UniProtKB/TrEMBL annotation:
The keyword Transmembrane applies. GO terms for cellular component: plasma membrane. It comes from Spirosoma terrae. This is HdeD family acid-resistance protein. Keywords: Membrane, Transmembrane, Transmembrane helix. The keyword Membrane applies.
Amino acid sequence: MENPLRESIRETAKHWWIPLLVGIVMIGFSIWILSTPTTSYRSLSFLFSLVLTISGLAEVAFAVNNRQQIQGWGGLLIGALIDLALGVYLLVNPTVTMMVLPVLLGAVLLIRGAFVMGRRLVYALLGLLTGF
């Protein structure tokens, strides 16, 4: 009988084209960013603030709508309100957003890169990676 974890990873590896597609999209965005740095930086700053605001609104709705089912839903609500307030603050103050964005982006990329490398290392150690 096959190990369930190994089978799950093997199933995931069958969809190899998804990371390829993500990579192609990322390269496309990087070309746009490199060719129009000022415009793209302002756009990314605004988009970041907008997404944080919308996420905060969605989290508030989730917390309130699920208050009967989730024990400790107040913590979710407080976190959602913080996200919402921060998103609105950054929308109103784009200069602050432009100062904070590189630090957040750097932290996210660092953490994500470490996780991706760790996952690939585990796959290699389990003998699940073949080809390139």
